Amino acid sequence: MNKKNHPNRNQAKVKRYTVKEPAELLPFLLKSISNLSRNAVKSLLTRRQVSVNDRVVTAHNFLLQPGQTVSIGNNRASEETSMVGLAILHEDEDIIVIRKEAGLLSIASSQENELTAYRQLMAHVRTQNPKSRIFVVHRLDRDTSGVMMFAKSKDVQQKLQNSWQDIVRERTYIALVEGVVKKPEGTISSWLKESKTLKMYSSPYPNDGQHAVTHYKVIQASQGFSLLEVHLETGRKNQIRVHMQDIGHPVVGDKKYGAKTKAIGRLGLHARVLAFLHPATGELLRFETDIPRAFLGPLRGAK
Questions:
Q1: Active-site positions, per UniProt (predicted)?
Q2: What is the CATH number of the domain that holds 38?
Q3: 95 part of a folded domain
Q4: What is the percentage of the chain residues whose pLDDT exceeds 90?
């Protein structure tokens, strides 16, 4: 390859089309890009590879006006970098799936007024339609990282929440916990309740509270820490954190539930996999993220 073409390589990948007459975005793209199938063009929209006047657009029916420029290619960097503590993994007309970093609130409480995943995604969908909204389906604690999903309509939110146990096929977490867990795998079952100080705990009485079931498997262990793969059978508030404390191995950095160490400067909990049936199409979607590098630091030298 000729070296002098190197700096312009990314620019060459971006294709631009000028809109001549009013049209919806998907039909315009199908007409403009004759060498791609309908599904391939839809995929460009889903992967956020299409911009109108340098603003990312994913809606198939976005109305184009004469004089606008439609760009296709590596043109999403500007909006992605403006989002703090999250990245969009998937977006369509019904849902948004993100990877949240530790430290970002999913949604603010009535007492809090700070940047949240919810607020940023609301601003994102309103760049395409000022009336658009997003709706909370489930939450991750502020200090938990990983995959989470939002709905783009009240109907989709209700369908997901009402059928959560049937729609969600896999929820896998990675937990870095204190101490060496002796049993290579196990199941923890208890009835969870919330105290007056808003702390969850396992009730000593059967049928007293919400039933919670957690399955775990040891991936790796060292002198003072264990890395666990955790599968949720139920999704209760702080479930993993309470259950790890119950077996005497609190999550690293989780002072609220008995941890004594701050080995990685954050909570050692990451929502690694979320797999579910799409609420509109029924298609099985699966999103997997990497184990945070920080979780592996305390395990160096482990067998």
A1: 141
A2: 3.10.290.10
A3: no
A4: 66
Average pLDDT rounded to a whole number, residues 260-282:
94
Question: How far is the C-alpha of 151 from the C-alpha of 159, rounded, in Å?
Answer: 10
Q: Where among 36, 55, 76 does a domain terminate?
A: 76
User: What is the H or E stretch that residue 216 is in?
Assistant: strand 210-221
In angstroms, the CA 33 to CA 70 distance is 12
| Beta-strand pair 63-64/23-24 | antiparallel
pLDDT for 216: 98
Judging by beta carbons within 10 Å of its beta carbon (0-12, 13-18, 19+), is residue 89 exposed, middle or buried? middle
Tell me if 147 is assigned to some domain: no
Catalytic site positions: 141
Residues in CB range of 106: below 8 A, 6 or more apart: 100, 116, 117, 118, 136, 139, 140, 142, 148
- CATH number for 289: 3.30.2350.10
Domain enclosing residue 4, as ranges: 1-76
